[in-house]
Amino acid sequence: MSQRVYLFDTTLRDGEQSPGASLNVDEKIQIARQLAKLGVDIIEAGFPISSPGDFEAVRTIAREVKGVAVAGLARTHFEDIDRAWEAVRHAEQARIHTFISTSDIHLEHQLRMTREQVLEAAVAAVKRAKSYTADVEFSTMDASRSDLDYLCQVLAAAIKAGATVVNIPDTVGYAVPEEWGKFIDTICHKVEGIEKVIVSVHCHNDLGLAVANSLAAVMNGARQVEGTINGIGERAGNAALEELVMTLRTRKDLFSLYTGVHTEEIYRTSRLVSNLTGMKVQANKAVVGKNAFAHESGIHQDGVIKERTTYEIMSPAMVGISKSNLVLGKLSGRHAFRQRLEELGYNLSSEELKNAFARFKKLADKKRDITDDDLEAIIEEEIRKAPHTYTLNYLHISSGTTVVPTATVVLQRDGQRLEEAACGNGPVDAICKAVDKITGMSCTMVNWGINAITSGKDALGDVTLKITMDGQKVYVGRGISTDILDASAKAYVNAVNKLVWDNRPVEKIDIE
Ligand SMILES: CC(=O)SCCNC(=O)CCNC(=O)[C@H](O)C(C)(C)COP(=O)(O)OP(=O)(O)OC[C@H]1O[C@@H](n2cnc3c(N)ncnc32)[C@H](O)[C@@H]1OP(=O)(O)O
Ligand SMILES: CC(C)C(=O)C(=O)O
Ligand SMILES: [Mg+2]
């Protein structure tokens, strides 16, 4: 038996059956292009008889999206099949997917047909589809609640009529893995002609078992799995394709099977589907959720910093996420805390790390998410207390249209008063030059910007600027005042202090 598992993506058909998710033609085409890039084998682009818009979407996708088979869904009615063919006929590989229920409950209450009538309708539909295309998929809706002998009889007849793929749906998500695996195994052994076709499964998630059931089916002979991106679909949704693919890839030892999916495209596809359908992905969703590669607790973060595989069974890069996310919160430890500070450009001595970490833990008890801004504020506190850094004590500016801008600045350092004056191209330049005279350093300003924090004439100005000494490492300074020159002076001194602090001798420690 082939080791290749074909992926049938029905995001644009069953996925669109999610309450609230509706896609226009352009959006469907965008998703179809991305699905082709992802490497699925078949795109079920829609149900062409259902509306002129859906027909148009399927037809455009069939014409324009290359390198993938395109399927259109059809009931056993000939009008449905004819319409599906009209829509998919220009695809590189055009598939008609026709279906009818086989469970007694559906036959009695919905179709109001006898078993014989359903069998006849199935055979006629497959033959009709086959008159158009070699690639015909036949599905037995509500298979999991169908009488197994009758189901096998219908499948055998559909194969004899020309079906090339037989799909066994768990339409209402009723199956459980072990039982479902045996069910598929029986079909694979019992149905006449089954060895000539691909056996497929289509599992719904009403009990949260869609992926588990699909995998049980694959273990028992299914070689096509149907699913959707992010697991969207009718009611609780369909099997999530990204979970299926990553299970097969991660557990090759168990399955020894492969798909044609470029897994690095998974995350991009998931985001696109979520954005266009408006169906949010829950944070703890496997593979593509915001937290799928996020670690919050100290012990896990420590492990991941030392060796990613201690707490990750797949790498974020495999699914197209740039890196794992160490979330800082009250459960984090010093290893993760120090790593994040280093990423922000701060090297702390053992004493500084101890103090900053204690402050971080106190803050984390009160605040759920600790942001980089919070960390900066914690470090600012360390910088303010550190020796050899400067405090702005006094500022006088002389400026106007007829005078050369001049600044007089008084700073304090280690208890000492330091005063200098300087001229500049403008008042801010004069301030910086006066500060440079005091510090003995000549810094280049690479950026200066102001935001009004409050409104009105007495608005508080928030100046942010960036300086560098070596043209490489940049230090950001911030100052707030009602006077923008005072805010600029504070921001400049703030940046200079970071530079001084960063270049202090640091006794590096290992955290035990
Ligand atoms: C499990 C699944 O996901 S199946 C796919 C579900 N998706 C959809 O239904 C979305 C698209 N559907 C539609 O736009 C419409 O339902 C249409 C165009 C298909 C049909 O619309 P209508 O003709 O107005 O029928 P309506 O939807 O109310 O009822 C369905 C009819 O199809 C019949 N039917 C259902 N499945 C099948 C089937 N596989 N083969 C033949 N007939 C079927 C029902 O018995 C019912 O027939 P009745 O009118 O003789 O009682
Ligand atoms: C059309 C069929 C395959 C379906 O979506 C289902 O049975 O859930
Ligand atoms: Mg379905």
Automatic annotation (TrEMBL):
Its EC number is 2.3.3.13. Pathway: Amino-acid biosynthesis; L-leucine biosynthesis; L-leucine from 3-methyl-2-oxobutanoate: step 1/4. It comes from Pelotomaculum isophthalicicum JI. One of its GO terms (biological process) is L-leucine biosynthetic process. Catalyzes the condensation of the acetyl group of acetyl-CoA with 3-methyl-2-oxobutanoate (2-ketoisovalerate) to form 3-carboxy-3-hydroxy-4-methylpentanoate (2-isopropylmalate). It comes from the Bacteria. Residues 391-512 are annotated as: Regulatory domain. The gene is leuA. This is 2-isopropylmalate synthase. GO terms for molecular function: 2-isopropylmalate synthase activity; acetyl-CoA C-acetyltransferase activity; manganese ion binding. It catalyses: 3-methyl-2-oxobutanoate + acetyl-CoA + H2O = (2S)-2-isopropylmalate + CoA + H(+). Belongs to the alpha-IPM synthase/homocitrate synthase family. LeuA type 1 subfamily. Keywords: Acyltransferase, Amino-acid biosynthesis, Branched-chain amino acid biosynthesis, Cytoplasm, Leucine biosynthesis, Manganese, Metal-binding, Transferase. GO terms for cellular component: cytoplasm. Homodimer. Its cofactor is Mn(2+). Pfam families: HCS_D2, HMGL-like, LeuA_dimer. InterPro entries: 2-IPM_HCS-like (IPR050073), 2-isopropylmalate_synth_dimer (IPR013709), AIPM/Hcit_synth_CS (IPR002034), Aldolase_TIM (IPR013785), LeuA/HCS_post-cat (IPR054691), LeuA_allosteric_dom_sf (IPR036230), LeuA_bact_synth (IPR005671), PYR_CT (IPR000891). Mn(2+) binds at D14, H202, H204, N238. It is an enzyme of class 2 (transferase). Residues 5-267 form the Pyruvate carboxyltransferase domain. HAMAP family: LeuA_type1. The keyword Cell membrane does not apply.
